[in-house]
Amino acid sequence: GLVSQEPVLFGVSIAENIRYGREGVGQDEVEMAATMANVHAFIDSLPEGYDTLVGEHGTQLSGGQKQRIALARALVRDPDVLLLDEATSALDTESESVVQDALEHAMLGRTTLIIAHRLSTVRNADVILAMQEGRVMEQGTHDELMALRGVYFQLASTQAAFQDDETPVIDTDLDSVAVPQPKRKASELSLYFPEETLPEGEGRSISLWTLIRYNRPECVWLLLGLLGCSISGSIMPVFAFFFGEVFATFTMQGQEMVEAAIFWSYMFLVLGGLAAASIWLEIVTMTLAVERLVLRLRVMAFHNILRQPVSWFDLARHSSGYLISQLARDAPLIKGAAGLRLGQLLSATVTMVAALSIAFLFGWKLALVLLLIVPLITGGAYHQTLMMRRTQVRDSQLMDDANKIATECVQNIQTVQALGTERMFIRFYTNNLNVPFRNAKKQAVYYAVMFATSQAIIYAMYAGAFRFGAYLIEIGDMTPADVYRVFFALAFCAASVGTSSAYVQDYNRAKVAARQLFCLIDRHSEIDSLSPLGLTPTIKGLVRFERVYFHYPSRPNIPVLRGLTLTVEAGQTVAVVGQSGCGKTTLVSLLERFYDPVSGTITVEGVDIEDMNVQHLRRQIGLVTQEPMLFNRTIRENIAYGLADDATLTDRVVEAATLANCHEFISQLPQGYETRVGEGGSQLSGGQKQRIAIARALVRDPTILLMDEATSALDTESEKLVQEALDKARRGRTCIIIAHRLSTIRDADVIAVLDRGKVRELGSHQQLRSKRGLYYRLMEAQQL
User: Rounded to an integer, what distance in angstroms lies between the CA atom of residue 164 and that of residue 745?
Assistant: First the structure.
């Protein structure tokens, strides 16, 4: 059983996440494991209880809640070996104590390996290994290692000195409880077992002309392609006319026949040359036009995705798996309605018009009779299109679900392998593909029947043409050559109808895909991060929250902030603390304009941030969150992400890394700052990722520095060094610190204690301690 430092949850219900620990466990075992992990009471308080959806990667829960659910998932396995990699790092003091007792009980009779920064969590271990630079330096019990006064003793002394104050405290996490979601069934947005079709979006109906309008920059290519289509479409009807003339030639005698045959031979060569040139022109121009259209729509969709507010991504249908699927799959499907497919339709249309013209010119009676059969062919194609339209949207949704599962599994492959749930996820993936597969089989059978029938009708048309043509020749209304002209002209017309029916099939798929893609392109963003509009005042750091009320858009009936008022002076360091669910992290989200308040105002330098340019505001803010996110690029690129690459950039990166206490470990890497960090920073430890994230914030020289548990992933020694660096970095800046460990914020100019969405106490560490109120009770909870 493994519980890692950064817990990974899947986008299903809480119960399903715990059951991933061991397939087939009952609800009683799930609740027992949750109770041992001290998370049952919290889950039970939610409107939907264990059926509550956690969101993609557990985004609807706080770090502490995710950690406890991950712990329950490990305990439900009843493992012989228990691996705990900072398993209690995100828990508050009370929860940590209870969970630690539960873990000690769970460890009985099991081999347990604990990776720990906080020495208080490993004092009772049978054996403690003190490591340094990849080697075991000391080994023994807590008392034995303390007596050695070596590496372990230095760590313990450093930790004690760092935490020591007039009131002793220990490291703790008072994690924010994510407020429960509105009452709803878990099946509504279930990612793996959808029982209802998810909303299809508010996209407008997409016509062929809409796509052509977006292809206007390639109008020259389209016109050339139209020319090529017109010529290539007329080739076969002209061939029918030529063939009739050749047939007439063979009725001649002697030299006259030879000369006519030579002439028409040359005409066929000319026709072949025109066919080659026109088809080449059609394919090249129409393919270039549609590829540029797909590229344009993809970029526009991605551009608009990045403009959306964070609340938009909170919805399950806007998860990364769905959005990636739309960009990767839906955009290429648009080719079925434009480009070469459109060229083939235009060519087929020209063929039909020219063929019908020739047929009626040389034998309107025969042409009219044979045309009565055409509706039978086109009717079958139309009926097939209707059937496909009924299944296309549903199949598309299920394919999106399958892509979601695959994306989440690949992103969290270590967790999947650690849980041994590969076969389970393969089954989930297969289940989502089974319905489209069954529909595809039905469509294949139906398409085979319809196609075979249409071919039989075409041959019946041929039979009718010969029989009725013979009659018309017999009565003298047509010549044999005219019958052949009409016959071949209508044969090519029938082939063109087949080509058109294939286009209609692709067009239907393209229309569904385009509608979903244009849902992304057309959507207006309430908080447009790429808009050039808005005020751009000089920001010195004065921040005011004035009677701010807020609830998350996905949970409108659960208030988070209830008239909060707080002033942060320029250059001041304000720490925000409080019990679970008080809204600490929400302040950071609102100041960054990830969300807008329901009422009240947030001002910077006296300007309402809703009136400010979003990019200008965010450029003045440096943010370090509790769970750092790095990109799969080099360390240098991660620190300098988004900054202009000038002559001073490298020096600025090194300076920021030094300030964040990560320059030394980066320099020891074989490739130094050019080392790639892996997907999500997987090649680095939690502490290393956090320090790089701090460096990324500092290199921008922000006016306002926001730290949401910025040192939570660091060991004691690194935390002390980084805390000293941050103390230097915040000089001259407005700094807002969201903290669980009170040891990290005692030197703050002002400490704001939040409770139930309001500031209840405000003052310095000493002032609040002397009040013996909420802050004092938090301190008491952290006493040794």
Answer: 13
Own/partner long-range contacts of 365-372 (Cβ < 8 Å, ≥24 apart)? 365/472, 365/477, 365/478, 366/465, 366/468, 366/469, 366/472, 366/478, 366/483, 366/486, 366/487, 367/486, 367/489, 367/490, 369/464, 369/468, 370/461, 370/464, 370/465, 370/468, 370/486, 370/490, 371/490
Bridge partners for 115 per DSSP: 85
Secondary structure class of 705 (helix, strand, coil): strand
| DSSP states along 651-698 | HHHHHHHHHTT-HHHHHTSTTGGG-B--GGGTTS-HHHHHHHHHHHHH
Structure confidence at residue 174 (pLDDT): 31
User: Residue 143 and residue 153: Cα distance in Å, rounded?
Assistant: 10
HEC assignment per residue over 123-162: CCCCCEEEEECCEEEEEECHHHHHHHCCHHHHHHHHHHHH
Q: What is the C-alpha separation between 635 and 640, in angstroms, rounded? A: 9
Separation in Å, CA 676 to CA 359, 664, 684: 69, 17, 10
- The count of residues in the chain is 784
User: Which tens digits make up the pLDDT trace of 247-297?
Assistant: 788 878 888 888 888 998 999 999 999 999 999 999 999 989 989 999 999
**Predicted pLDDT at 110:** 80
**Token output for 308:** 């959306």
Among 117, 127, 124, CA closest to 156: 117
* Amino acid identity for residue 632 in this structure: N
Q: Minimal CA–CA distance to 351: which of 232, 442, 198? A: 232
pTM (two decimals): 0.68
pLDDT at 192: 34
DSSP characters for 600-652? EEEEETTEEGGGB-HHHHHHTEEEE-SS----SSBHHHHHTTTS---TTHHHH
Check: CATH 3.40.50.300 for 571-584+627-781? Answer: yes
- Identify whether the C-beta of residue 169 lies closer than 8 Å to the C-beta of residue 745: no
* CB contact at 8 A, 229 and 351: no
> What architecture is domain 205-362+505-526?
Up-down Bundle (1.20)
Q: 3-class SS at 198?
A: coil
All structural domains of the chain with their residue ranges: 2-125, 205-362+505-526, 364-477, 571-584+627-781
**DSSP structural state of residue 53:** B
* Cβ atoms < 10 Å from Cβ of 28: 8
Contact between residue 690 and residue 725 where contact means Cβ atoms under 8 Å apart: no
Interatomic CA distance for residues 340 and 280, integer angstroms: 11
333-372 as b/e: b if 16+ CB within 10 A:
bbbbbbbbbbbbbbbbbbbbebbbebbbebbeebbebbee
Q: How far apart are CA 271 and CA 310, in angstroms?
A: 60
Task: For the chain, list residues with pLDDT below 70.
Answer: 5-6, 56-57, 59, 62-64, 87-102, 105-106, 158-205, 316, 374, 376-394, 396-397, 411, 414, 497-505, 580-581, 642, 644-645, 647, 712-718, 721-722, 782-784
> What distance in Å separates the CA atoms of residue 2 and residue 84, rounded to the nearest whole number?
6
The class level of CATH for 2-125 reads alpha beta
Work out the number of other CB atoms within 10 angstroms of the CB of residue 608.
13
- Are 753 and 774 in contact, with CB atoms under 8 Å apart? yes
SS3 of the chain: helix, strand, coil, percent, to 5 = 60, 10, 30
Fold matches, 2-125 and 571-584+627-781: yes
Count Cβ atoms below 10 Å from residue 178 Cβ, excluding itself: 27
d(CA 751, CA 720): 20
Per-residue pLDDT, 409 = 77
φ, ψ dihedrals at 706, nearest 5°: -110, 125
